[in-house]
Write a structure and sequence with these properties.
Radius of gyration: 22 Å
Largest sheet: 5 strands, antiparallel
Number of strands: 10
Structural class: alpha+beta
Oligomer: single chain
Order of helices and strands: HHHHHEEEEEEEEHEEHHHH
Shape: globular
Strand order of the largest sheet: 2-3-8-7-6
Distance between the termini: 52 Å
Strand content: 5-15%
Helix content: 40-55%
């Protein structure tokens, strides 16, 4: 294990899990990640390896066949996986958000139906809030679910669906005005629908189309897609929790887990960038000595390492807060904001240390330089995080006068 980003207070099981995951990353992901990323190839063998390790069931309770581990354990595993290749961490993130939402909010029938198969990786989850025209404004969702007998008919278009092609269960947030009178606040008339589908692209079930992958600057390998619902019919028992109007709160609960995940990804990518930078600085010579012996580079390494350590500490704090059962939107927002910003800065410094070679696709830092920007917008932009942080601070520090 490296000197940086250590976590105090872990038990023997957590340490064993992390050691196993790190060994898998070093042997099975890092050697092939850049090659697969350049080909934008889905990492099938890596995903099968994660399934064998039981990581798809890491946070799913033991009664459903999972390992029953904490969010902290999951976040530390994500940190390691992102250190190897951030796209792989994205594959399991959306899966775990859906599993978490089912565990916290699903009916018993929904838990019994999906969680055991999700723990094995046989059912793979994805979730969808964003739409082409709304960005961060979740209240402006226009996709709609209308009750028709014992079914709901869904119509609308969703955007930025991670695992859109490979998933077989998608949690989708839609408007559902049934039972909610006109004038009801938008967030109180939203419902999460659980949509089962076949993996692949095109029409994956009647009324549901997953177009091809969106071509992205980075974050390749994982499939990012749209989702189009055209009179899609699903049974009423696929409303998450069995009651309409709770979707916004269910999704926000899941997004808090997602923000801890994105913070963990930022920590992992930053750690890898530091590793690459400090290693290259000791190999590259200028003016008769390794560039690591130049004060300017030592200052850069010191700043990078400090940012890695600070981001990791905030991510761990946010995960532990959620595990305790307490509200953690403030801590998750801070961790996501700081880790993603620091990740960008650490990656850029490592890129600068590499000089001209950092611009070459032969060097791993080039891939990290294209991956880091996704963390600035994933699970809410920096501006959204600041809004959340500011509002929560005003709640905690209300002026008494």
């Amino acid at each position: 294990m490296t000197r940086l980003a250590q976590t105090a207070g872990l038990n023997d099981i957590q340490r064993e899990i992390l050691s196993t995951v790190r060994d898998f990353i070093d042997k099975e992901i890092i050697p092939v990640a850049t090659q697969l990323e350049h080909r934008d190839e889905y990492p099938t063998e890596i995903v099968e390896g994660l399934k064998e390790l039981g990581l798809f069931g890491l946070m799913i309770p033991e009664e459903y066949g999972g390992l029953g581990e904490s969010l902290l354990t999951y976040a530390l595993c994500v940190e390691e996986i992102a250190r190897g290749w951030m796209s792989v961490s994205g594959i399991i993130n959306t899966h775990f958000i859906v599993a978490y939402m089912l565990k916290q909010h699903g009916t018993q029938e929904q838990k019994d139906t999906f969680l055991p198969r999700m723990a094995l990786g046989e059912v793979r989850g994805a979730f969808s809030m964003s739409e082409p025209a709304l960005g961060s404004d979740v209240s402006a969702i226009s996709s709609k679910g209308v009750k028709d007998g014992e079914e709901y008919v869904l119509n609308g278009q969703k955007m930025w669906l991670t695992n859109g092609g490979t998933s077989t269960l998608v949690a989708v947030l839609c408007r559902s005005d049934e039972g909610h009178p006109e004038g009801t606040a938008p967030h109180k008339s939203m419902t999460t629908f659980l949509i089962e589908k076949e993996p692949g692209f095109g029409e994956v079930r009647p009324g549901l189309t997953i177009p091809g992958k969106i071509d992205k600057m980075g974050y390749k390998g994982v499939d990012t897609t749209e989702l189009i619902m055209d009179d899609l019919r699903i049974p009423a028992n696929r409303v998450l929790g069995g009651t309409t109007g709770r979707g916004f709160y269910q999704m926000m609960d899941g997004v808090e887990v997602g923000r801890v995940n994105v913070a963990a990804r930022g920590c992992g990518v930053a750690q890898r960038a530091f590793e690459l930078g400090v290693s290259y600085a000791q190999q590259r010579h200028t003016f008769g000595k390794p560039i690591a012996q130049h004060q300017a580079i030592q200052f850069k390494l010191a700043e990078m390492a400090t940012k890695v350590e600070a981001a990791h500490a905030m991510m761990v704090n946010a995960a532990r807060k959620k595990d305790s059962g307490e509200r953690n939107d403030l801590e998750a927002g801070m961790a996501k904001y700081l880790a993603s910003e620091y990740c960008k800065e650490v990656v850029e410094d490592a890129f600068r240390i590499h000089g001209g070679y950092g611009f070459s696709k032969e060097y791993e830092i080039e891939r990290l330089y294209r991956e880091a920007p996704m963390l600035l917008i994933g699970e809410g932009t920096a501006e959204i995080q600041k809004m959340i942080i500011g509002r929560r601070l005003l709640e905690e520090y209300r002026f008494q006068g």
